Amino acid sequence: MKSILFSLTLTAILFPVWVHAEDELPRILFVTQSEGFVHNPVKRGSGERSSAELAIMQLAKDSGAFSVVCTQNAVADFTRENLQNFDIVAFYTSGDLPITEADFDYFLREWLPQKGKGVLGFHSATDTFREFEPYWDLMGGTFESHPWTQEANVTMQVHDPEHPTMKPFEKSQFAFQDEIYQYRHWEPEKVRVLMSLDMEHTELKRPYHVPVAWCKQVGQGRLFYNNMGHRSETWQDPRFLQSILNAVRWIDGQLEGEAEPNPEVSQAQHQASEKFASAAGITLEKLEAEKKAREATDAARRAAREKRAAQQRVPN
After folding, report:
1. Are residues 160 and 41 in the same domain?
2. Helices and strands in the chain, H and E counts
3. Do 275 and 135 share a domain, yes or no?
């Protein structure tokens, strides 16, 4: 009995109940389709939901704050008609999804700018439609690489600890294990940076700003993106789950939080990262030289393989 009461108390603390008519609950379409690398949290077993889908479904059930439909079929579900059944679209996707330009145009220009509508992006949502400017302009950046792999232990720095999506992490700095992206098409003048890689306290250093979470206003709609979520363990972390729940409530207007862009934060983080990386002997010039050396080695290996293949094709 004591364990049951403890469980109920813990649930109440993590997921406080909002008085909200069921037919008024925010409705989420959670798209987990992969047309590129398939991450473990969205990998379905035979006839089973993925771990990220199960986590979102359980979060909806425990909190009573929203409803969710999970899909890996954008052709059938990401359409002008079906989008009208939802308030939020969540992406944990990769590659070029089979979404028509007309449906995406409706989503971006008519559906999303409405009050109460929004987008949640997780991890490889920025590794989706990498060459499609309307998408990466919406999302705020595009995956470039991940020097910090899934085994990396990193330190996060929270810039807006009072933002509802950041409050669950409780500290302005905290350690975490997950794969962290760096980006191209990064547009700090259009987003509010909420969390970044703390380059001073993270072992693997780079001389530039590496944002982790941000938000933005899109008309009267809202977007929240968090790079975390590569590891299945992340989807069991109470802080991460509470952040998602608060993001839903923030989009729905239940919780207040700034979305005003703060490019000065990105600039300051860039300068600090240069300082700490330089102290560790890492500069952009050194990284560029290493990149060119790897490319030259790869080119030489390809040439050698092609030469051997050509020699094998020559008849005796």
Report:
1. yes
2. 9, 11
3. yes
CA–CA separation, 58 and 258 (whole Å) = 28
Query: DSSP of 72-84, one letter per residue?
Result: S-HHHHSSHHHHT
In which band, very low, low, confident or very high, does the pLDDT at 98 lie, cut at 50, 70 and 90? very high
One-letter amino acid of 252: D
Tens of pLDDT, residue by residue over 53-81, are 999 999 999 999 999 999 999 999 999 99
The CATH code of the domain that includes 131 is 3.40.50.880
User: Residue 218 corresponds to which amino acid?
Assistant: V
Cα–Cα dist 253/247, whole Å: 10
Evaluate whether 104 touches 80 at the Cβ level (below 8 Å). no
- Report yes or no: 84 and 44 within 8 Å, Cβ to Cβ: no
Look up the domain containing 198 and give its range: 19-279
The pTM of the full predicted model, rounded to 2 decimals, is: 0.87
Q: Nearest Cα to 205, choosing from 274, 136, 103?
A: 274
User: Is 62 part of a structural domain of the chain?
Assistant: yes
pLDDT digits (tens, 9 = 90+) for 250-289: 999 999 999 999 999 999 999 999 999 999 999 888 888 7
Residue 33 to residue 300: CA distance in whole angstroms: 36
User: What average pLDDT score do residues 140-160 get?
Assistant: 94
Confidence check: pLDDT of 1 > 50 = no
